[in-house]
Amino acid sequence: MLWSSQLTLLLHKPFGVLSQFTPEPQSRWGCLAEWVPIPNVYAAGRLDADSEGLLLLTDNGRLQQRLTDPRFGHWRQYWVQVEGCANDSQLDQLQQGVMIQGHLTRPAKARLLSDHEKQTIGDRNPPIRERRSIPTCWLCLELREGRNRQVRRMTAAVGLPTLRLIRHSIDLMDGDTTLSLKGLSPGMWREVTGAEEQRLQRLLSRSAAHR
Question: What are the tens digits of pLDDT across the range 138-176?
């Protein structure tokens, strides 16, 4: 049976939390169990502890595998505060691909975040460290791959060190709206709606049809 999940959640993972339900010995980071008191769900993909944003949790192993399989390349949108003011040349480099760890990244989408989008971002706890002499700006970066600390490595490669990283949305690639952080403050989570669950079910059905 393709769809056996009883529960799929969208979580706004706060800063300082590992994308797992068990703590790591001697780690200064917290874990998901401190925020989501639901048994038998696991993260479909991961965010580093020092990153924030959208994390999908599910008890459906097939869905977890489908959303993390690099063959399908789901677009993931990140809102990134960087040190410095991004220019057109740097944005072009991010879009065309940059060399990190000996490999060229896949083509991406990169632009400056709009004023309206920036107004929806709350403060981080703890706040980032800013230097008064160096300005910062916010980028919207969309990727179809997820190498280790890729966003941070990409912005650093074009001279824009990342200060804060938020995954804002995940595209199910079905022509409908993305799954996003809308309505979720850091630490908050919700179950997917009936319509969203149907979309996830169709996602698995399409995967089976293409085997």
Answer: 999 999 998 889 999 999 999 999 999 999 999 999 999
Q: Per-domain residue ranges for the chain?
A: 8-70+176-209, 76-169
CA dist 121 and 65 (Å) reads 30
Say if domain 8-70+176-209 classifies as CATH 3.30.700.20.
no
Tell me how crowded residue 190 is: count the other CB atoms within 10 A of its CB: 12
Query: H helices of 81-172, where?
Result: 88-96, 115-119, 150-157
**CATH fold match for the domains 8-70+176-209 and 76-169:** yes
- Hey, what's the torsion of the CAs at 155, 157, 158, 162, to 10 degrees? 30
Q: What CATH code would you report for 76-169?
A: 3.30.70.1560
103-146 per-position pLDDT tens digit? 999 999 999 999 999 999 999 999 998 888 889 999 999 999 98
Residues 188-209 have pLDDT tens digits of 999 999 999 999 999 988 766 5
Rounded to whole angstroms, the Cα distance separating 147 from 105 reads 9
Catalytic-residue membership of 48: yes
The pLDDT of residue 126 is 93
Contact between 199 and 100 under an 8 Å Cβ cutoff? The reply is no
Smallest CA-to-CA distance from 127 within 16, 2, 1, 10 is with: 16
Active-site entry in 48, 59, 69, 92: 48
